[in-house]
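Subgroup meeting minutes
Present: P.N., E.W., G.H.
Scribe: E.W.

1. P.N. recapped why we're keeping a running log of single-chain structure predictions: easier to compare across weeks, and new members can see raw inputs and outputs side by side.
2. G.H. added today's entry (235 aa).
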Amino acid sequence: MKLHVIGCYGPYPNAGGATTGYLVEHEGKALLMDCGAGVLGKLMTLWDPAQLECVILSHLHFDHASDMLVLRYYLERMGKTLPVYVPGEDDSPLRGLLTAPAFNVMPYPEELRVMGLSITTMPVSHPVPCRALRLTDGEKTLVFTGDTNACPGLADFARDADVLLADSAFLSAEWNEKMPHMSARMCGELAAESGAKRLYLTHLAPRHAPEAVVDDARAAFPEAQIVRPGLVIAL
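Output recorded in log:
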């Protein structure tokens, strides 16, 4: 399994960047995990979007799903329909905009099996319905927290992940319990508690220096790393 970092910023991109979007490649096939602002153009340098197996959206905030609106035009031109998985209870306006012939929108099943992977989900703590995602091929496991603040059960959901991709939108100095995201240090604590082998920090705020985000996480998990567009993580 390979994880290609397409976009990693939030809630808006830095200059020339993109918000959340990850290409997961396995057994010669690929799926897209979130499709935020600026993701589609960068995806096209890696993979033909019409050849994706599916799109899985952790939630329907614009920085995770807005490029679905232009992906629709490409799929219509190519005569393709993609399965799109979303939190079933989300009835936001963006959900309505996805009801196009190019998309077969479905709620997450208890277990999604696609391209040799088993994908399970967990509801997390965010202002709109959001899911953490656990992808495994039976040997290696990737866990993506989605957007979340501190969340009971998340460490168990991420237990022994080979790669933990975690929402580090804030620094510890600015975080409080009412925030919609974790701090980088909380991501480090989550990695340590869950026994994750590797921690990668995502949902990066352009206002933060990358070194500050990494240092904050390394206070709890010394091996923490930050993602960057173009990074390929092999599991």
